[in-house]
Amino acid sequence: MTLEKKRVFVAGHKGMVGSAIVRQLKERADVELVTRSRQELDLMSQAAVDDFFSTQRLDEVYLAAAKVGGIHANNTYPADFIHDNLLMESNIIGSAHRHGVQKLLFLGSSCIYPKYADQPMREDSLLTGELEPTNEPYAIAKIAGIKLCESFNRQHGRDYRSVMPTNLYGPNDNFHPENSHVIPALLRRFHEAKINSDDQVAVWGSGKPMREFLHVNDMASASIYVMELDDDSYAEHTQTMLSHINVGTGVDCTIRELAETVAKVVGYQGEVAFDTSKPDGTPRKLLDVSRLTALGWQASISLEDGLRNTYEWFLENQAQLRG
């Protein structure tokens, strides 16, 4: 008897999260993966995306495509971050609905929550306060994606779910020296300092902000888990007007502790200094992951183990990395 496979499109399959989802779905006998490179499909073209969906007979979509970056990139390119992300999610979610795709998972970001939200941040703190100014355009685009999914569910009975990850890192991250997130930026900086025998590495900010970090393999596992929850289990832990679920470890650390752990993993022996003239961003970002825990999923990769895995990947791929 031939096993019936579901056709699953992973948008953004070459990115950090998308590639991790693809790696895990490839192990499944019941999945026929559908992917398209940026050259094959322009996700910012409504006509191209709609034509793609019209020919593919897709059963599920993982919307992992996004324009992402750290504080510097968000501050420098705010128009790109809101414009590109709004276009991609609107095109994909709209076309999925028009062409009969019943199940979709949208990947958001913990920056959707107010800058001074109570910690740990619960799903119902969304839209209860002002956003962090440095990434407000990106956050608004991600909030719009959540509301697109909620609205198609309400009006058309679709099953479009959203997961909000904490700060992610891992293989296929962006290691650009200026436009990357904190972990790849620090891994690269400490590695180059070790190679150059530098006496000191400067880290942006005071080192006091608290951050939570999730390895991308855990994120992929959680994404697939939430996508495949039965309707009753999922509905029990979400509300009609609150369809997103936080994904994280439930544990945070200071940026100073992170930098010291990165130095240990890389083998850097010099001084770690903090440049207080640079912005800290949000004082603390820790997600309340009690909903996902109640649904039966927990992170399994420790920060130090995840950093070692990511540094190994960096060493193996640094010749191909941007910047």
Automatic annotation (TrEMBL):
<feature type="binding site">
    <location>
        <begin position="165"/>
        <end position="168"/>
    </location>
    <ligand>
        <name>NADP(+)</name>
    </ligand>
</feature>
<dbReference type="GO" id="GO:0050577">
    <property type="term" value="F:GDP-L-fucose synthase activity"/>
</dbReference>
<keyword id="KW-0521">NADP</keyword>
<dbReference type="InterPro" id="IPR001509">
    <property type="entry name" value="Epimerase_deHydtase"/>
</dbReference>
<comment type="pathway">
    <text>Nucleotide-sugar biosynthesis; GDP-L-fucose biosynthesis via de novo pathway; GDP-L-fucose from GDP-alpha-D-mannose: step 2/2.</text>
</comment>
<feature type="binding site">
    <location>
        <position position="181"/>
    </location>
    <ligand>
        <name>NADP(+)</name>
    </ligand>
</feature>
<feature type="domain" description="NAD-dependent epimerase/dehydratase">
    <location>
        <begin position="8"/>
        <end position="233"/>
    </location>
</feature>
<feature type="binding site">
    <location>
        <begin position="107"/>
        <end position="110"/>
    </location>
    <ligand>
        <name>NADP(+)</name>
    </ligand>
</feature>
<dbReference type="GO" id="GO:0016853">
    <property type="term" value="F:isomerase activity"/>
</dbReference>
<comment type="similarity">
    <text>Belongs to the NAD(P)-dependent epimerase/dehydratase family. Fucose synthase subfamily.</text>
</comment>
<feature type="binding site">
    <location>
        <position position="280"/>
    </location>
    <ligand>
        <name>substrate</name>
    </ligand>
</feature>
<keyword id="KW-0511">Multifunctional enzyme</keyword>
<feature type="site" description="Important for catalytic activity">
    <location>
        <position position="111"/>
    </location>
</feature>
<feature type="binding site">
    <location>
        <position position="211"/>
    </location>
    <ligand>
        <name>substrate</name>
    </ligand>
</feature>
<dbReference type="InterPro" id="IPR036291">
    <property type="entry name" value="NAD(P)-bd_dom_sf"/>
</dbReference>
<dbReference type="InterPro" id="IPR028614">
    <property type="entry name" value="GDP_fucose/colitose_synth"/>
</dbReference>
<feature type="active site" description="Proton donor/acceptor">
    <location>
        <position position="138"/>
    </location>
</feature>
<feature type="site" description="Important for catalytic activity">
    <location>
        <position position="109"/>
    </location>
</feature>
<dbReference type="GO" id="GO:0042351">
    <property type="term" value="P:'de novo' GDP-L-fucose biosynthetic process"/>
</dbReference>
<dbReference type="GO" id="GO:0070401">
    <property type="term" value="F:NADP+ binding"/>
</dbReference>
<feature type="binding site">
    <location>
        <position position="189"/>
    </location>
    <ligand>
        <name>substrate</name>
    </ligand>
</feature>
<comment type="function">
    <text>Catalyzes the two-step NADP-dependent conversion of GDP-4-dehydro-6-deoxy-D-mannose to GDP-fucose, involving an epimerase and a reductase reaction.</text>
</comment>
<dbReference type="Pfam" id="PF01370">
    <property type="entry name" value="Epimerase"/>
</dbReference>
<feature type="binding site">
    <location>
        <begin position="12"/>
        <end position="18"/>
    </location>
    <ligand>
        <name>NADP(+)</name>
    </ligand>
</feature>
<feature type="binding site">
    <location>
        <position position="142"/>
    </location>
    <ligand>
        <name>NADP(+)</name>
    </ligand>
</feature>
<feature type="binding site">
    <location>
        <position position="204"/>
    </location>
    <ligand>
        <name>substrate</name>
    </ligand>
</feature>
<keyword id="KW-0413">Isomerase</keyword>
<keyword id="KW-0560">Oxidoreductase</keyword>
<protein>
    <recommendedName>
        <fullName>GDP-L-fucose synthase</fullName>
        <ecNumber>1.1.1.271</ecNumber>
    </recommendedName>
</protein>
